[in-house]
Amino acid sequence: MSLLFPTSWDGPSSSSAPALAAAQGKKRKRPSTVQKEDDIDLKSVEINIEKLMKKMQQEDVKGAKEQKAKEEGGKIKGKTGGKEKSVLEKGKAQGAQKGSAGHPNGKQAGRQEKEKPLQRSQPTSIPPKSQTLNDVETQGGKNKKRKRGQSDANQHVDTSPPLKAQPGEPVKPADDAPKMSKKEMKKARLSNPAPPTTVPLPPAAPSMPDTKLTPLQAKMKASLSGARFRWINEQLYTTSASHAHELMRAQPGLYSDYHAGFASQLAGWPTPPLEALAHLLQALPKHALIADLGSGPGTLARKLVPRGRKVLSFDLQADEWVTEADFCERIPLPGAEGERSEGAVVDAAVCCLSLMGTDWVRGVREARRVLVAKGQLFVAEVTSRFTSVDTFVQVVESVGFSLQKQEDKDTHFMLFVFQKVEGEALGDAEWEGILEKAEGLLKPCEYKRR
Fold first, then answer.
1. How many helical (H) and strand (E) elements, i.e. helices and strands, does the chain have?
2. Which of 205-214, 343-352, 422-431, 440-449 has the highest mean pLDDT?
């Protein structure tokens, strides 16, 4: 047994049987292979230093290669005539070849491929987009100065017209223009009316007989018709008469939609203003010619013509009773401004709730033009629109009228009767003053949602 076991067992001699049995119960201890911490740290430091030195050598070699590539990348020698070609020209040629081979944007691809290394070595050699390739001549990787003639010829000149103020925007003078006074700014604003509202037009109500509609459908139809009427009404009161005329021409259905809603609104008034005006017009001679300005569907003519009266109706859309005309712009009747009123044939002009546009005073001036000497102007207007009744009367009289009668008996509207006064035609300065005074004098007539 002593020959089978080495003498490296711990304990007494192996020749002793009791000692051998005790030694078999103990675990064998292997020789230690663990090194000291000082030895480990020293070797790891040596290894890290060697790795660092190798890495530095590799970076030095890599940096030298990159530097050499930069120096050689700036120039590409050509063999055409013994001269060097610029990288940009060669990139353009290669891009053209790629484009001819089916590349969707060959020229641009070739230019991009050659411009990338050029930006590092020669960042100033790429001409801006506004220049042509002829403006820059490269030789030896350096730019030559542009020729003076080419610089002037290729220089961009802005030939676009000066910007004008949009409708409704304040007119701003140019930087080199003389400053405008408040009066001049207001005059420019009056000649540049505000644009219409950008709120979309509500859809039209379905054209179904009311007898075939359920109560809910009838309510929805009335709601759509009311919303559409309020939108059209806002356009007529917040824009010029010429804009309203264009709107009705572009969408003819708006005219009938508006007057249908207007009739339903008037149904709730104690006294219709047209009835009050018809009563006043009965005092005129039988042969008197009446011009209804802003007549709608010709309600006044339908009422008075059967009684033997002569009535001409004018509004933004024509029918069998109405002639199409914007009476704030031009009434298709003879007449002239001045003392003699040459050619005028109208004895009475009527404006029944029709001074709607922002330029309503132009309609007053046009009514005076077509009236005979001492002709009369009848006006009915919503009471709540007047910011000042006295100022309204003054403005109308300044156009060439004198107030003959004024009634405010009704709770909803007021009646005025003016007579034409002979005098000289209005001068430009005088007319501009009238426009300025009339601005904002009549508020828009708004109908609330019920």
1. 14, 11
2. 343-352
Please state the rounded mean pLDDT for residues 161-187: 56
pLDDT confidence tier of residue 50, bands split at 50, 70 and 90: confident
- Conformational region of residue 247, where left means phi above 0, alpha means psi within -120 to 50, and beta covers everything else: alpha
DSSP assignment of 258-325 equals HHHHHHHHHTTSSS-HHHHHHHHHTTS-TT-EEEEET-TTTHHHHHHGGGT-EEEEEESS--SSEEE-
**Alpha carbons 308 and 288: distance in angstroms, whole number:** 10
- Topology annotation, domain 271-438: Rossmann fold (3.40.50)
How far, CA to CA in Å, does 181 sit from each of 31, 172, 178?
109, 12, 10
The rounded distance, in Å, linking the Cα atoms of 43 and 83 is 61
Selected residue with higher pLDDT from 105 and 344: 344
Pairing, β 401-407 against β 83-85: unpaired
The closest of 405, 312, 328, 399 to 362, measured between CA atoms, is 328
370-386 pLDDT per residue, tens = 999 999 999 999 999 99
CB neighbourhood size of 297 (10 A) = 20
Other residues' Cβ atoms within 10 Å of the Cβ of residue 57 = 10
pTM: 0.56
Whole-number pLDDT of residue 65: 78
Which residues are 235's β-sheet partners? none
What is the rounded distance in angstroms from the CA atom of residue 247 to the CA atom of residue 258? Answer: 12
> pLDDT at position 303, please?
95
| Cβ neighbours for 244, distance < 8 A, ≥ 6 positions apart | 235, 236, 316, 326, 356, 357
* CA neighbor of 277 nearest in space, from 417, 373, 445: 417
In terms of average pLDDT, the best of 1-15, 259-273, 431-445 is 431-445
CA-wise closest residue to 416 among 404, 406, 424, 408: 406
Alpha helices in 101-214 (DSSP H): 106-121, 148-154, 182-190
Structure tokens, 419? 């007579």
- Domain range list for the chain: 214-257, 271-438
CA 171 to chain CA centroid, Å, is 17
Measured distance CA(81)–CA(404) in Å, rounded: 101
Q: For residues 79 and 237, give the distance between their C-alpha atoms in angstroms, rounded to a whole number.
A: 79
Question: How far, in Å, CA of 347 to CA of 35, rounded?
Answer: 129
Tokens 């009123």 label which residue? 341
Whether 144 shows a pLDDT value over 90: the answer reads no
